[in-house]
Amino acid sequence: MPFVTRFAPSPTGRLHKGHAFSALCAFDAAREAGGRFILRIEDIDPTRCRPQFEDGIYEDLRWLGLSWEEPVRRQSDHLADYAAAVETLRQRDLVYRCFRTRKEILDGIGHAPHGITDAVRPGPHPADEEAELLQGGKPFAWRLSLERARDAIGGAAWDTLSFFEEGHGPDGETGRIRVRPEIAGDVVLARKDAGAAYHLACVHDDALQGISHVIRGVDLFEATHIQRLIQTLFGWPEPVYRHHRLMTDADGKRFAKRDGSVTLAALRDGGLTAEALREDVRQQRAF
């Protein structure tokens, strides 16, 4: 199988050192394997994604010395593809409408007598209640039903569903790993007002683009469990997973947009060279 990997950032801010670490991990792996490196823009969140941040991604990655295949797939240009995938699941009765807000679900978690299981599997509304909510135009999300998914796959296949990890999970997990979709519960796959959600769009495009190796940060390790289930429901190929450690600052804190980490643009303006940053990344990979 040809080696194909990707870097798939969301244009919700400028890139920082953590992004550089992840992009270089994937790019270098493809180069070492004589394979292909794909850049994908995951811009399905219309409330946070901005064109100027997408432009910044291209600028920063070129400064780092990366190159990629053209054209770049922008997920916002392909919402109909994801809607068709959701419709396929709907016709198979594997998803249900959920009108509960995030706050209502979190409140349910806080009051659940047996932990979060029932709260993250809210289940469909009664038919008469659903009809009334639809009549009132209340927004809803399409949730994947783990119960129905298990029935569709079959108990034996469900119990043996797994993925292969070439890197390491947060607790050192490596090799063939049993999939536990219950970690995520009945995840949202699409919203009426905002299109597809991350899990569906991500695995859809990995299959479409022939991604053989998913190389990404260990913070996304747990997402693999539900993503492998989605792949199985559609009959999409299983890639190899290679989760890597996260780059940290001098205090051992991971870089993150939400924490206001210094951007690559700011570091570049401050005189940092791409060569110096690549050397910093190589040193962090070594331990």
List the helices and strands and how they pair.
Elements (H helix, E strand, L loop, with lengths): L3 E4 L9 H16 L3 E6 L9 H14 L8 E2 L4 H13 L3 E4 L3 H10 L5 H4 L6 H9 L5 E4 L1 H8 L1 H6 L1 E4 L9 E4 L9 E4 L3 E2 L1 H11 L4 E5 L5 H12 L5 E5 L19 H6 L4 H12 L2
Parallel strand pairs: 1-2, 2-3, 10-11
Antiparallel strand pairs: 4-5, 5-8, 6-7, 8-9
Helix pairs in contact: 9-10
Overall pLDDT, averaged? 89
- Radius of gyration equals 20 Å
Low-confidence stretches: 107-119
**Largest beta-sheet characterization:** 4 strands, antiparallel
What is the helix fraction of residues, given as a range? 40-55%
Helix-strand makeup class? alpha/beta
Strand order of the largest sheet: 4-5-8-9
> Number of DSSP strands?
11
Distance between the termini: 30 Å
Quote the beta fraction: 15-25%
Broad shape: globular
Tally of DSSP helical segments: 12
Explain this structure:
This protein is an alpha/beta fold and 287 residues long. The chain has helices at 17-32, 51-64, 79-91, 102-111, 117-120, 127-135, 146-153, 155-160, 198-208, 223-234, 264-269, 274-285; strands at 4-7, 36-41, 73-74, 95-98, 141-144, 162-165, 175-178, 188-191, 195-196, 213-217, 240-244. The chain has a 4-stranded antiparallel sheet with strand order 4-5-8-9.
